[in-house]
Specification:
Number of helices of chain B: 3
Strand content of chain A: 25-35%
Shape of chain B: globular
Radius of gyration of chain A: 19 Å
Helix content of chain B: 40-55%
Distance between the termini of chain B: 14 Å
Largest sheet of chain A: 9 strands, mixed
Order of helices and strands of chain B: EEEEHHHE
Order of helices and strands of chain A: EEEEEEHEEEHEEEEHEEEHHEH
Oligomer: heterodimer
Number of strands of chain A: 17
Number of helices of chain A: 6
Number of strands of chain B: 5
Helix content of chain A: 25-40%
Largest sheet of chain B: 3 strands, antiparallel
Structural class of chain A: alpha+beta
Distance between the termini of chain A: 37 Å
Amino acid sequence: MSFRFADAGAPLPDPAPPPPFHEWRLLADHVFASFHRYHGSFLVRFPGLADFTVSADGQAVTGFHGPDLKRSTLDHLLLNQIRPLALSLQGKNMFHASAVELAGQAVAFAGRSGQGKSTLAASFARHGHGFLSDDGLELSDTPEGHLAHPSHSSLRLWPDSLGQLLPADAELADPIQHSTKSRVLADARMPHVDTPLPLKAIYVLEREDVAEVSITEMKPAEALIGLVNHSFLLNIDDRAATARHFERVTDLARSLPIFRLDYPRRYDRLADVREAVIRHTLQYTGHDAARHPA
Amino acid sequence: MQPDTRLEIPAHVMARELSGETVLLDLVKGSYFSLNGVGSRVWTLIGQGMALNEVCQTLLTEYEVPAAQLEQDVTALAQTLLDKQLVQVAA
């Protein structure tokens, strides 16, 4: 994938795109991103922040931004939003999921924004299970099974998670302008795994109004819908591409163990969540859970 | 909808069966719909070109259920699928 930024302040070649075919809203009245067809490409507009054009094949991305936008914000938008969407256009399986290493394999945590993907990944990483990705997880099929691919070596965390999970001197990237989240750079205390690992299981993060951690197997049809709902898909109007994605996700739902993970979203219960996930995952690998402390 | 109504599956709807359940994808809307075991069977029989009364006759040989209840359930499911444009009345 090639990427370049236009000169700061440079306008879009055509500043009047057609109406959006899709929007992401943080609140009912706040559009975080709008998606437009744009001269054979796609335009992803983050109102007040930046515009990105993405070629139809997902291979070329150009960023347009005002003179006041910080590089850290552009990097954030590029890495966490645009890159997964562009990779989905390349036919890759991209999911709203984080992933961590466990006994030499990967487990993924899929969920909507704010469900705890990054917090769980950081919590595991802080206890020796390096993270592959905090969102925008790429999964691929190989003759040996499904692989989870690493993305960038940083995690986005809310301020309260920072204080609870990280040492005071953890290295942070420059602040992001549109969010109170911070981007934390991986280090020896919060390691990043930079090689693909076989994916062992997917945990879909669901209910938080529970007193205890519980893990239940999802029926394949339910898992399929869950995975589709947590997919990055930019070109949803492309029926052939959507059909191919549906096929690939169906294969995932048939061949991978997929579970619902319900747990109270409390920092003092994260150790319980880690312990439950580790014990549960290792049942499938035949490893001794005692050798992989939570 | 009449008992001899035949429905057909439009080209924009994909269906995949997983462990006895069926997930339908509407490629136009990007929406999903799940059918349980009996619903999956109804879907399969509709896909084979059966009229609704033929679907019911077949199911009566497979499930122990009162005919009137079955006809009501099959008609309701067919109407739901029709309303969601996951099937259309065959020409």
